[in-house]
Amino acid sequence: MSAKSSKKIRIGTRTSKLALAQVEEFKGLLKDALGDREFEVVPINTTGDKNLHCDLAEIGGKGLFIKELERALVQDKIDIAVHSAKDVPPHLHEETILASFTKRLDARDCLISKDFTDIKDLPKGAVVGTSSPRRKAILLKLRPDLKIVSYRGNVMTRLERAQNGEVDATILAHCGLERLSKGDKTCPLGYDVVNFIEKDVMLPAGGQGSMAIQVKKDNLEIYDFVRIANDFKTEIEARCERAFLSELGASCYTPVGVYALQDGDSLTLETIILDYEGKDTFETKSRGKFALDEAINLGKQAAKKTKEEAKELLAKICT
């Protein structure tokens, strides 16, 4: 690391248990390269975490989970911002860059319920809590009879509310449960009651399973440092997914799933967009070379196909 070796490396993060667990995972990836420098964790309470009683899309979307972290980065109050990759909007502050994507954990969603193990087993009119337009639309596509209610809060809160019977079920990303279990063995609802939803049923959000590490473009020392934590396979998959979302013009309001996966020397990309009630859908599946430039182009081309062939649907959801 250079002449700044005595300076602490400041890591900005949200304040939830999951966010702090992600920071510990990230620190572990870099500990061997730290030398005589130290990490300083800087917890930041974001707007998205403060406004738990409002619908996320109505107050600005998932970007509210990174806005304050991004501002602290630009103002040199932190050196690194650690995010869940799925929470990072397609477009960043112009002075920043996503320098690293950590190895992706299982990207599947899970059904969390005290009594039911599969979406098809939920009783007619069952109440399912979720704040995700993607999950809501896919649930209604599968089961139009379900009642979907807004369900905010961190992972631990949502687990506890499901356990207390406030809803019949909720949907959570498995990667969050996995990361929490490493740092908190008292996590309610053990893995024996976590039921995977396969990707062909519920396509994940872009970036789901990975952490995205944001730095300032002009901080080349920190950029080089966090690249050590980068997983090349995950980066190619995530940048393909982000290229699709960016070209599509997707926002937090958009019910959209996108998942790229290495297949030998190739990359397979699956996408889905839905209207808010899950009645109208458009899907694509395409393949390209497993290389960064080709992956980004694959994502863009899938979005262009979607824009050309699903104009009416997009007009309803990308407003």
Describe this entry's structure for a reader:
By secondary structure, this protein is of the alpha/beta class. The protein has three domains: 9-103 and 210-230, D-Maltodextrin-Binding Protein, domain 2 (3-Layer(aba) Sandwich); 109-197, D-Maltodextrin-Binding Protein, domain 2 (3-Layer(aba) Sandwich), CATH 3.40.190.10; 243-317, Porphobilinogen deaminase, C-terminal domain (Double Stranded RNA Binding Domain, 2-Layer Sandwich), CATH 3.30.160. The chain has helices spanning 17-30, 47-50, 67-74, 133-142, 155-163, 174-183, 220-226, 232-248, 292-309, 311-317; strands spanning 9-13, 39-43, 80-84, 96-101, 109-112, 127-129, 147-149, 169-173, 194-197, 211-216, 256-263, 266-274, 281-289. Strands 2-1-3-10-4 form a five-stranded mixed β-sheet, sandwiched between helices. Strands 7-6-8-5-9 form a five-stranded mixed β-sheet, with helices on both faces. The chain is globular, with a radius of gyration of 19 Å. Strand 12 (266-274) and strand 13 form a beta hairpin. It is built from ten helices and 13 strands.
